[in-house]
Structures are given as structure tokens and as C-alpha cells.
Amino acid sequence: MELRILGSIELWTGNALADIGPARQRSVLGALLVDPERPVPLESLVDRVWGDRPPAGVRNVVHTYVTRLRRALALASAELPEPIGLVRSPAGYLVSTDPGAVDLVRFRRLLKDAQQETLGDQERSVLLQRALTLWRGDALGGMHSDWAARARETLRQLHHEALSQWADTEIRLERPAAVLAELRAALLTDPLSEQLGERLMLALYLEGRSVDALEHYQSMRELIAKELGTDPSRRVQQLYETILRGETAAPAPTFERSTEPYGGGTHSVPVPAAALVRPPSAAPHMLPVDLPDFTGRERELDLVQRTLTHPSATSPPAVVVVGGGGVGKTALAVRLGHRLRSAFPEGQLYAALRGSGARPADPHAVLGRLLRALGTDPDEIPADPDERAEVYRLALAGRRLLITLDDAFDDEQVQPLLPGSGDSAVLLTSRGRLSTPLGARVVHLADLPHGHSVRLLARLLGSERITQEPAAAAAIARYCGGLPLALRAAAVRLNARPHWSLRRYADRLSDEGRRLDELAHSSLSVRASFTASYNALPEDAREVLRCLADLTVSEFDAHLACPVMGKDFATVEDACEQLVEAHFLTVAEPAVADLPTRYRLEGLQRSFAHGLRTGHAEEAAEASSPPPRAPVHQR
Fold this sequence. Notes:
By secondary structure, the protein is an alpha/beta fold. It is built from 28 helices and 15 strands. Strands 7-8-9-6-10 form a 5-stranded parallel beta sheet, sandwiched between helices.
């Protein structure tokens, strides 16, 4: 059973071509098979097949095509142990089959296998030829939409990459004639490709056809000048100059690694192996350094580890770690990434999305960085946001990586950065603005227990200092409220003042009006972290937080807060729930059914709220409205 999209869209059973309906129906199947392990939402399916001109009643049309396809797939695969299905879930439509039945998936697997460093060139050549024979023409043949054109171009570049690697391998094996026909055929459809043109020139030169190589350069130079208004790349020009200097055919090349594009001796073709073939990219390891003093969180680490190391057949294993500012989400994600390095031998991607700051990272720019880390030539990274995301998913397919997206702002920022198949795992951290992408497991990160807080202080300050003043150390831990950021800020301040006793610092922290000022040193600031969360709140929630500081009790319900606020119950309750989501309030336990929820404002959050009322956090009040957000592809 073969599902083919590297050419016309077809379904083969044995040697028989199955009938899967008219062109538009085949287009629906092709749109689902580009990402065979990723459900396609109805809106995306409509866009892929019809673009901005869907027919009237397009939902009914899609339903009809899906029903007919489901019937055709079931009929064609009836004798298989597991017939092909077309299923619908809340996430969208998905072809239910072994991904290896799709020619695009097999192509990528063969390409990946061919890039193993331990392979000899003869074995590499065989694998690349097998991959190239899967192509029967332009991908998604018969589909006519803007999306199909973009996807087709992306896949064409993937084909050119495989063809270039095969040409490089054959040239190293001193068989340049073997690649001439394939290179010429590919250049008929993409005459501006310098990647292919360079290899054709080199193969012709090594075959003793210097004149043909020089003529091809001249025709390529003229076409590039006419269509693009530029000259060929410096590397291609250097190859041209090399051929000119050679005048006649030279002996077989010696391939020596060099940092120069085309440098070498007079009696060999001076092209280093590094210029001829792109070696498989080294496994990217982008994680920040692990904190040597990381303390506690063993239960959370084990839970997340179990989730991420049990891949699903249809979607990537994913976890969202949620918690307030300074609670240690990034530290946990980094510790876990280093712990799981052996479980993800093909590498770990990491992106700081800066969701808690005033300017969240632009996912379009993040995609560019991740693609470069995955080995994509910067010149081949598309400018179009949708196309760049497609190239990213294609680059991840078949690779087992851990993708850590730290401090995510919202779903719109995260969505383009998610993989399209279940091979990789995803670990996200957020202050709580995400839904559950990929059906992720949500892990709420609470404050550190008191005992772990004291242990962290001992690691940061030295156990001897804690042993000398255990009561003062315990007091400092209590004033820090189990917040790792606060504990680290306290330790940095104490390490900068070794002449201070722990008792002296604990006495300073006992003053609630000064507490947040004491818990700040250099870039570590509890107030700054809280301010970022405060600025992201709606105005009603900000007003409620400021007013709650006037309450004389730490536990309350919305009814109690209404007189203070001068607002109705529903408005105050909604604001309180938003403050819970932002980790300023906690819910008092146990909650009683049918009674108003009781909330708590305590610890450092209460100190922050008092600061808002007394003017110690004027910068937060002045910045209470965050700047307008740019479109997602410009952020």
C-alpha cells in the first residue's frame, strides 16, 4: 500500500492504482498527507484546497469529499491487517495509517539515513538514489492553490538538496558522469538554482568537458542577471575561475577539508569535501547551562520525564509547565533537558520566547534561528511565515529532538514552533496564558516547600553559614515565601555582604514595606518579575489587586471585596479569578460547592499589592497598559 504525493496524488495497492475520485477530492487527500501525522483543522483544509475562493457551503463539500475518500481508502485497503482510515477529531482531519506508507515520509527517512557520518560513500549513494527514485514529477500534482504552490516549492528544494548530496557523493566516488542527466533534468524546472548549477559545472569539468562547464556558467550568469539583476554567488564564480585556470581536464579530485571555498593545488580539482557535500548537521544542543544548585522538584521532574519519553503514534508528547514569575519554570525545564540528553540523541532545541516581557519574541524570527540550528542553509529559509513554518516541520520530521519553548506568551506565538509529527517532544513553560497545544499535559509548579527553601539557601550560601544561624536562615526562607527567585536574590545580596549576619538580613526582611526592595540584586528582582505579570492583567484585575491590599484579612471571598471595590459581585469575582491565573491570589482549600470561592492574598504577593498602594511600585502603575502587540509574524 502506497500513498504518493511526490508527483501526482495517488493510492497504489500492489501494482494497481486505486480510484480515489476526481481532482478536488484527491487534493483533499494530498492536503492531509503533507503532514501525515498532524491533524489538519477544517479551516486549514479549506485554505489548502481552495485558498481564498471556497465554494458556497464549503463545509458540506468537505464532508462529502471526506466521506467518499474514507470509503475509497477502506475499500482499497480492506485486505490489510489495519485498513487505512480517515478520522476526525477536535484537532482536525487525519489519515490513519502507517506513516511509512507515504512516499514523502519514506523519502525523508532515506535522506536522514544517508546523512549518517559512519556510512561510506557507496552506501550513501545507494540510499540517496532510492530516495530520489520516489519522485515522479512536481509534488502534489493536480493541486491548484496558493498553499499547494508554496508546499510544492518547499518540497522541490528538498528534492534539490537530496540530488545535490547524491551528486557530491558520486563525484567523490569519481563517477561524475552518473549525475549529469539528473542535474540537467532538474535544472530544466529550476534554471536559477546555483546549488544544482554549481554541481553540473563541476561534474562536466571532471568528465573532461571544460568547454561545456564554462558554457553552462555563461548561460547561468546571463539568466541570473536578467531575472535577478545580480551575479552568481562568489563560490560559483570561484569554481568558474578554477576551470578557466585548468584549461583542460584535470585528474580526479583530492578532497581535503578547507575553510576556503575553492583553494588547492594545480594538479587537482581544488574543491574541498566540505564544499561538495553538506555533512549532516551536528546534533543541536541549545539549552542554557544547568544550575548546579537546583533543589527539589523531584516529583515534577519525574512526572514530566515520564510524559516526554513516551511518544505517541499521532502527536508529539508535550508538557506545559505553568507557574508564577520567579517560581523556577525555566530552571526546571533546563534541568530536565540536560537530564534527558541521552533520551533525545538527535539534539535539543531551545527558544526563550520572552512572553512575560513587554516585547514577546517574534515566532517568525525564532523559526529562523531554529532552522539554522537544524542545519538549514540561511539562504534557503523562506521569508513567508507559513512557508517557513512548513520548512521547519519538514526539517523536524523523522528526527527525535526535545524542543523547549520557554516563557511562552500565547497560543498564537507557540503554534508555528510546534512539530508536525510525534517523533520530537515539546516542553513549554508559561505563566498561564496557553491552552493545551498538542493535548499537552499541564504541570502546575508551586512554591518550594519550606525545607527545600532552606536547602537551596544552604547550597547558595554554604552549609556552614546556615548551620551557624539556623533560626535566621529559616526566617529568611519564610520571608521569601518559597519563591526560588526571591531565595536567589537573597543569597546574592548576602554573598555580596559577607559581613552581614543572617539575623541582620532577616530583620530587614521582616519589614513588609521594604521586603521587595531587599529581594533585589542586579538582574534578580522579585518586584520586576511581579510587575511583568501585573502589566499583563486587565484593568479591572489590576484595580482589584490594588484595593485588596486594604483588606485586614488574608482570606476573603468576592462578597467581602465588593464594598472595598465599589463594584458588583460578578465583576469582582471575574477579576479575582484572573488574579488566580496570574498567580497573585491562591484559592483557599477546601472549596465548598455552591458557595463563593475563597481566596488568599499573602506573602510576597501581598507585599507587592501594598507597594502598589503606597507608591513603591510606581513603575508598575505607570506601565499598567502594555504596548500594543504587533502581528504575530512581526513580533
